[in-house]
């Protein structure tokens, strides 16, 4: 009787969350899946068209470029940014001189909305009145050769990539929290055995943080698959297709082409890309965990 009563309370507490989940996530996902197989615009009702929308997007060169750009950004975000966050965490954990100021300055950009960050960089790097013009003036360089970093297809992709560097601080916060949870007696025992600071990090800290590193890689990858605001504010996916990714392609398909069926087909591909990346990353770090277990045995 007590068990049934306990299960009833669990059900009552979980039910509101399940209902909210269905309303916010499940229903929209099912709707996207259904309408991706339909001819659907803002003025017409969905009419089943089979795989037509998927044939259209995979036959579009811009769509393939958007997938390529998305995957490159995922690779950069899940490696360079995570490594930068880990490096900063290792440095800040030692509390060097001025570490509180560095920590605060490093974390501040994370409280600024990403769209606002995009606007800020657009103004800073504007060739007419931005910081580049001031630097060219200070060094006496030719003002006519100031590059438009967001407007030049050679620089736009990497300039947009650099605007995300400050958000590696999110990973730093997670890493610092995990480092604080490591038993200090392990470090003390290693110091007694003559271990140097870099050896403590190499043989104790990093192996014990493999799971949280995997978590950060997953979060970074998922964030990049759905990245929209900074790209739209700075380049709108241009110039040409230099910074076009899946969310921008989806947005343009829905708003400019008024083709919601095709846009939802892009959304389905975006969901699948995210799921595949999560499964691959989790599998990769699970293999690492199994290796550690074997070595311990």
UniProtKB/TrEMBL annotation:
One of its GO terms (biological process) is transmembrane transport. Pfam families: BPD_transp_1. It is found in: Cell membrane. It is a multi-pass membrane protein. Keywords: Cell membrane, Membrane, Transmembrane, Transmembrane helix, Transport. Its main location: membrane. The keyword Cytoplasm does not apply. GO terms for cellular component: plasma membrane. Residues 67-281 form the ABC transmembrane type-1 domain. The chain crosses the membrane at residues 7-27, 71-92, 104-125, 155-177, 212-233, 265-287. InterPro entries: ABC_transporter_permease, MetI-like, MetI-like_sf. Belongs to the binding-protein-dependent transport system permease family. This is Sugar ABC transporter permease. It comes from Hungatella hathewayi.
């Amino acid at each position: 009787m007590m068990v049934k009563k306990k299960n009833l309370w669990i059900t009552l507490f979980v039910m509101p969350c399940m209902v909210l989940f269905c309303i916010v996530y499940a229903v929209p996902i099912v709707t996207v899946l259904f309408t991706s197989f339909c001819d659907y615009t803002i003025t017409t009702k969905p009419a089943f068209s089979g795989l037509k929308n998927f044939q259209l997007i995979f036959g579009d060169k811009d769509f393939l470029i958007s997938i390529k750009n998305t995957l490159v950004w995922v690779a950069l975000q899940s490696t360079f940014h995570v490594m930068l966050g880990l490096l900063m965490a290792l440095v800040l954990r030692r509390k060097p001189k001025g570490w509180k100021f560095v920590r605060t300055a490093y974390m501040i950009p994370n409280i600024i909305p990403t769209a606002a960050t995009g606007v800020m960089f657009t103004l800073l790097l504007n060739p007419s009145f931005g910081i580049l013009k001031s630097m060219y003036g200070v060094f006496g360089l030719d003002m006519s050769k100031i590059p438009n970093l967001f407007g030049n297809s050679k620089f736009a992709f990497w300039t947009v990539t650099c605007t995300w560097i400050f958000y590696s601080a999110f990973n730093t916060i997670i890493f610092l929290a995990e480092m604080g949870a490591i038993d200090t007696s392990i470090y003390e025992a290693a110091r007694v055995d003559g271990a140097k600071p870099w050896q403590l990090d190499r043989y104790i800290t990093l192996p014990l943080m493999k799971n949280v590193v995997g978590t950060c890689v997953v979060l970074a990858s998922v964030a990049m698959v759905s990245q929209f605001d900074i790209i739209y504010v700075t380049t709108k996916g241009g110039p040409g297709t230099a910074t076009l990714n899946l969310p921008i392609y989806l947005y343009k398909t829905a708003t400019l082409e008024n083709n919601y069926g095709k846009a939802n087909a892009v959304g389905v591909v975006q969901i699948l890309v995210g799921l595949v990346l999560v499964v691959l990353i989790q599998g990769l770090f699970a293999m690492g965990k199994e290796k550690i277990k074997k070595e311990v045995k």
